Amino acid sequence: MSDPYESTEHHLDSLLRRALNSxxxxxxxxxxxxxxxxxxxxxxxxxxxxxxxxxxHRHTYLLTDGSALSxxxxxxxxxxxxxxxxxxxxxxxxxxxxxxxxRLAGSFDDSPLFGDEGAPEAPGELEMLTILMxxxxxxxxxxxxxxxxxxxxxxxxxxxxxxxxxGEPTARLLRAAFAHHITQIFGRQCDVDGRSAGFTLxxxxxxxxxxxxxxxxxxxxxxxxxxxxxxEVYEDEQTARAAMESRARIC
Length: 251
Fold this sequence. Notes:
This protein has 7 helices and 8 strands; from the N terminus they run ααββββααααββββα. By secondary structure, the chain is α+β, with helices and mostly antiparallel strands. It has 2 domains: about 10-105; about 125-250, no CATH class.
């Protein structure tokens, strides 16, 4: 619920300051937000479990041209550490916020702690690698959404941390994207080298102006030395799955 005594300028400034990824917002969106006259906030969705507290808030701004613009704020914290401050992320597309929320669902293990009664046995290395490299299940027919797709592609490429990420030719091709569709292909929490690590694979499919289609394959995982999230992007699914296998082996 909005605070009736908080100015829109202060509300927006606070939101952008606390969001860890506010720098990813398109410049055009930030410029439009600079003309906001009023705002309204509401809780869009929430999830609370023993290990994860997550809420998605919708912030809608009335602009001087009479149009409305919404930002989607993701607020989350690890439930067992109640003293840790919540983390905030902000998105200008509801679809991106949903993808981020599903990433969290695959990153925090809702199963009992190791040693708890009834805790499931962690898969062995061979089983885990088989899961990572297995063929994806069949998915529903793709429905493209024309929603700043070229900018979405730019942001996916920008957050990639792998050295062999797609280069300028791919970025140039995706400037012609006018619609896109995001699908979570794979998500699994695995015990890797004695530590819990999450692996999630997304396909970002793009429809181009000439009618052709192309995809980016995004791997998000926590198989890092400090357990932080890492994003990698590849041009094909086989390479993305091979990268997941490699991360599982060297972790």
